[in-house]
Amino acid sequence: MVQFVLRRLLYLVPVWIGISLVAFLLANLAPGDPARLALQRALGRQPTGAETAAAREQMGLNDSPPVQYLNWLGNALTGDLGLSYRTGKPVLESLVERFPTTLQIAGGGLLLAIAIAIPLGVLAAVYRRGPIDHLSRVVALLGASMPSYWVAYLLILLFSVRLGMLPVAGSQTWQHAVMPALTLGIGGSASLMRLTRSEMLETLGQDYIRTARAKGLHSRTLLVRHALRNTMIPISTVLGMRFAGMLGGAVIVETIFSWPGIGKLVVDAIFDRDYPMIQGFVIFMGTAFLLINLIVDIGYGLIDPRIRLARR
Amino acid sequence: MSISHRGIDRRQLMLATGAAGIAVAIGKSTSAQEASSGSVRVGVSEDGYRTDERANIGFFPLNTNIFESLVYLTPDYQIEPLLAESWEFVEPSTWRLKLREGVSFHDGTPFNAEAVKYTMDRIASNGGGVMGIGEESAVIVDDSTIEITPTYVNMRMMEQIGHPNNSILPPGLNPAESRNGTGPFREVEYVAADHYTVEANPEYWGESGAGVGEITFQFYADPTARLLALQAGDVDLIVDVPRQSASEVEAAGATLVSGPVGAYEAMYMNIHGVEPYDLGQDIAVREAVSIAIDRQQVIDSAWQGNAEPGTTMIPPAILGDSASLVSAPEFDPERAREVLEAAGWVEGEGGVREKDGRALNLTIINGYGTAADHGSVPELIQAQLGDIGIDLEIIQTPDTATYEQRLGLGEGDLWLEAGSQNDGNPAFLPELLFRSPEEGGEPEATAYGRAFATGEEFDTTITRSREATDIAEVQEAAAEAMNIVINEERVVTPLCGFYRIIGHTDAVASFDLHASGVNQRWTSLTLAE
Fold first, then answer.
1. Interface predicted TM-score of the whole assembly (ipTM), two decimals
2. Could you give all domains of chain B from N- to C-terminal order, each with its CATH number?
3. Distance between CA B414 and CA B236 in Å, rounded?
4. pTM of the full predicted structure?
5. What does the pLDDT look like over A250-278, one tens digit per residue?
6. B126 contacts in A (CB within 8 Å)?
7. B165: closest chain A residue by CA
8. CATH architecture, range A100-271
9. Measured between CB atoms, does A46 come within 8 Å of chain B?
10. Which of residues 357-386 of B touch A (CB under 8 A)?
11. Which of A87, B79, B161, B204 sits a CA distance of 20 to 30 A from A22?
């Protein structure tokens, strides 16, 4: 197991280099001078040519692109991801500062998606073509077809404007996290519910389930221990992917709820051609993505002992 | 040559002309500081502060009135004394400023020439800006007198220096670490990306200090969320209500207030393009475009009536009495068709005009400030130009940088822009956009000039505006220059004049809205009893 984990962690190095190089090339291909954009934002006016030239020199933008990348890579290997052109703060500090806030709503959203999708998916499979199945289909259809910004505004109208229960936006209290997490959770639950249903249906049709049922196994035990456990492998794969997506792609939700997360940070960085922040973000998210997948892989072994044995 | 401005203390003048009566009428004592109580929550747009060595926390883009500039830009774009009481120009290129005495920063540090020098040196270390402040520019004459000599002869320095970005800091202050100004409010708490709280400064030097005890500015990146926050009662006032949804403020029982015009939307035509973007070289096409646009329809349809027909590409108020010298071409589609016919553009297949086998196809580039800033305006223009036989392709750039790159390459016929005026210099924008490009000139001016410059007449006129000593002459020359590009050369088609819109609940009694958001004074904000 340790070897397996170490080997997977080693994969990070080529992945880091690959994704940071792609991010660097893409950012450099986009039109616009990062120095000028950063100054424009800082000064509230168009910078003069002299100001832009001084800033370019200070940012190291007068070096050739390969030199710029290698300089960045050399520093990154020592843990220094550079300074953001946009804010002037160290990139790593900004990412570490923002990541937990995104983690809060993404984690909440994921838990909510699990809480809605799995029970409803299981029940829909067990009571196939029954009222619960139809209800789950409607819920899944709504969840999949409503864009996140629409869900966010509906939640604000309900919980803030009508009921006065939650603040519209901000990040100072736990109440501020409720609606962003709900928005992410509702969006995430639709496909998960359909997946749970279809996987459960397939599992429930297996011979060993029929055998267990014939042996008189209690239906709850049958469902939870035997059927659901076997459906958890594809579900946990999707959960891992969805969670990673929530971490990096919650930008609309973060904007509407003024939630200072990592998604908003990187979108602002893209508009401002903030190369160090963009590269720092891809490294950070690439790492998070691989770690989540690693956890999911380890989880496979816990869910299904056959996978653990095969690895040995 | 020597010009001077002896500043009248408008606050003293107000007192002398019956400010006591006004104060009683609004339920305040004449000493605003004594009456400052209560707190207000204000919904503003997203936190745009920097936190590095160029930190602008507290003064731009959300000006929380912790800091003050040397002069104040009035809502009608005239300048008045603030921390500078008076100023004069001394040949050949120096401005001598007499500073207000008896003013202190919030921590008790006296405001004096040393503070102004520190601020000017800081501006110089960041590049000097449009004012041309160099390392040697600021020279202390005595404690309350300073001389500023920009790196070029800058006759417009006093109109530029009032921008909040040039607010005066006490010597040694790094705004990234602490905020300490001379303003009517002082900092309580700044939580990045969430909120900024200020309280009334009881020691404020001016008579018209804060009208409320505390203001919390809550940042909302999303304008719709800001509007919903007002409806939910999370905030008492929101600024910059989206034009398209302004009616929802009143529908929710709140009060809608609009201010004077401080921003614009205009369309510029590339008159130096190469094929396929060379049709703007034909004056008949330019004239037809300029009179085919129905501004009122643009305002009613795209902005739900929340704008004024534009007459120039800057707020008319900045031109003072000369504003009446500029007017936008009148909407006359019939005449537009005649102009095109006379120039040989005859109706072809599908209603699109043709000349010598070439169809009258134009391209409009939408992306400045952002494409979203223009709502449905490009589509309306497309429909209106279609009515006179011009086919218009709309290209939307994803961001300003892409727009500017395209402009630099001259790839487009019409360019849709929106912007705001935040200082008192009427010559700045016309000169930036329409002056003939110079060898080694500023990159941005060069890009605009290559597309839009009309030639010597404009250059001479705008130079006269920039170099004039008398502000009325500055305004008159700027108006003449705009007439050249709008009505003679038809390079500019003004569309809309934008005013700011706020919404507030019954908790707010009064608030004087400034045309320029960054120059907003929050002292006028008072609470209902």
1. 0.82
2. 2-219+505-527 (3.40.190.10), 261-499 (3.10.105.10)
3. 41
4. 0.86
5. 888 999 999 999 888 888 888 888 888 98
6. 43, 51
7. A43
8. Orthogonal Bundle (1.10)
9. yes
10. none
11. A87
